[in-house]
């Protein structure tokens, strides 16, 4: 279990590193090619299409859980029913989704502020992202094999390849033809099509006994998935109001150009969110297994360890982003973005706590107790949306209003509800899951403070200076974590992993 966890974690960290490097390079290239105003509509159109997920997560939100239980219990027939029910239902749903996608495309200028010269490009992007969404929906059933077999290292490798292919396709299109905003969506579609085929291949390789047989579609299994997954849809609406409404509010409140600049700032925080999503997925199969075996003590210990590991990893990039925000933006996106440093810091600082707590979400799924979290997420999401509109538009706080609303409401939810409800589910003391929550905030604050002190001594004026100081801060942070935060057993584990990596390197040399 531990070796598989380490492999999965390394694969997902590598995937994140590749995504980070490509995004850091690709974002300013696209902005320079298209302009900030056009760039802002790229993530916004993608988000609008992703809102359609509210109709799909009810179906597929719990499919991996039920499918895994069936496979692990040796019931091949039941596993085939879950797989084929998910795949057939997804195919039918994909056909129906075309209708709202078409309506959204036709009336997009009624939904948000779109300059006339960009209207056709925005509509083309919506069509292409719609195709990406449908491919993703169809591929969900095939992706269950990697979750079931705990081969998320394969998933990480495929995600990395998808990121590289997408970037290469976008670059070729922008280089070979007159730049168009929808080239980004087209590049994404090309990579997604290849990713879809790869998912099918690995499903057949990992689970050759499970086959596609539409006749195995079962209405009872569909109702079982929907009855459990309906609360995932409710949760998705709430999460959307938390995490994916800011660009639309920015478009309404700030206008197209300022919203485009705001969307560029969101790239790093979105990457961090994506990284954590890939990390916590690594923990979920083990959580499901522990809960299925009624090992609640092991689940509590493992969950706290997951929060701690996630927090340790998140505190460093969050702290660096906050501490070097202005300098990073100036070097990365241009001198005109330097003044956004404080806003950028507000966007990212709270993530050190909020993202690490997300490791506990696996408990909700493992226990199939998603109703209450969904209702709370929906209620808090509505509060966030209302507060963001009120602060940014009614009180004229602009982008700061959007960021403050999200930071405040999300932190309140994750510091109060998430750990306490996890305790209630597992019948533990209410403080059982607070063990690792405060450490990420302390770690991020340590990184910010260390970076601020070093900047006073050595002002950052180049990429070399930024990387050098970041390296020094990272080394100090790692030493502090190793000597102060990690327990003796954890230190031995780290030493063992480092020795293994060193020995492998020596053999290769």
UniProtKB/TrEMBL annotation:
List the CDD domains hit by this protein, alphabetically. MATE_like
Give the way it sits in the membrane: Multi-pass membrane protein
Q: Name one GO cellular component term.
A: plasma membrane
- Which top-rank group of organisms is this from? Bacteria
Q: Is Transmembrane helix found in the keyword set?
A: yes
Q: Which UniProt keywords are present, listed alphabetically?
A: Cell membrane, Membrane, Transmembrane, Transmembrane helix
Q: Where in the cell is it found?
A: Cell membrane
Please give the name of this protein.
Polysaccharide biosynthesis protein C-terminal domain-containing protein
Lineage runs:
Bacteria, Bacillati, Bacillota, Clostridia, Eubacteriales
């Amino acid at each position: 279990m531990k070796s598989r966890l380490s492999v999965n974690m390394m694969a997902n960290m590598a995937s994140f590193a590749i995504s980070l490097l490509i995004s850091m390079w690709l974002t300013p290239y696209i902005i320079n090619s298209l302009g900030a105003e056009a760039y802002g509509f790229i993530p916004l159109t993608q988000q609008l299409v992703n809102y359609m997920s509210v109709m799909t997560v009810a179906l597929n939100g719990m499919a991996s859980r039920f499918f895994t239980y069936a496979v692990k219990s040796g019931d091949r027939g039941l596993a085939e029913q879950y797989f084929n029910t998910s795949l057939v239902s997804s195919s039918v749903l994909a056909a129906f989704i075309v209708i709202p996608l078409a309506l959204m495309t036709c009336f997009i200028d009624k939904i948000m502020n779109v300059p006339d010269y960009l209207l056709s490009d925005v509509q083309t992007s919506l069509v292409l992202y719609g195709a990406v969404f449908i491919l993703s929906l169809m591929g969900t059933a095939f992706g269950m094999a990697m979750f079931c077999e705990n081969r998320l290292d394969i998933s990480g490798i495929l995600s990395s390849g998808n990121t590289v292919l997408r970037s290469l396709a976008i670059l070729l299109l922008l280089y070979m033809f007159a730049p168009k905003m929808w080239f980004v969506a087209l590049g994404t579609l090309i990579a997604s099509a290849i990713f879809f085929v790869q998912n099918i291949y690995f499903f057949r390789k990992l689970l050759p006994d499970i086959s596609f047989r539409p006749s195995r579609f079962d209405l009872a299994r569909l109702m079982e998935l929907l009855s459990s997954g309906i609360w995932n849809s409710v949760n998705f609406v709430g999460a959307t109001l938390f995490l994916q409404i800011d660009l639309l509010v920015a478009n309404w409140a700030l206008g197209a150009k300022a919203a485009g600049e705001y969307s560029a700032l969101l790239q790093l925080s979105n990457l961090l969110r994506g990284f954590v999503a890939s990390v916590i997925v690594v923990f979920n199969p083990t959580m499901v297994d522990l809960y299925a075996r009624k090992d609640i003590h092991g689940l509590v210990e493992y969950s706290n360890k997951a929060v701690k590991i996630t927090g340790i990893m998140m505190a460093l990039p969050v702290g660096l982003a906050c501490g070097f925000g202005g300098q990073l933006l100036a070097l990365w996106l241009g001198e005109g973005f330097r003044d956004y440093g404080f806003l950028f810091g507000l966007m990212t600082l709270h993530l050190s706590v909020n993202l690490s707590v997300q490791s506990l979400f696996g408990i909700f799924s493992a226990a199939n107790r998603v109703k209450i979290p969904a209702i709370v997420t929906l209620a808090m999401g509505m509060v966030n949306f209302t507060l963001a509109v009120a602060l940014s538009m009614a009180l004229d706080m602009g982008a700061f209003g959007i960021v403050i609303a999200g930071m405040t409401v999300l932190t309140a939810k994750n510091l109060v509800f998430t750990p306490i409800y996890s305790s209630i589910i597992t019948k533990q003391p209410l403080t059982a899951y607070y063990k690792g929550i405060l450490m990420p905030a302390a770690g991020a604050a340590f990184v910010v403070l260390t970076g601020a002190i070093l900047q006073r001594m050595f002002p950052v004026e180049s990429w070399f200076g930024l990387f050098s100081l970041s390296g020094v801060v990272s080394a100090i942070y790692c030493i502090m974590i190793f000597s102060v935060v990690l327990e003796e057993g954890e230190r031995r584990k780290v030493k063992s992993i480092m020795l293994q990596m060193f020995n492998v390197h020596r053999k290769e040399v």
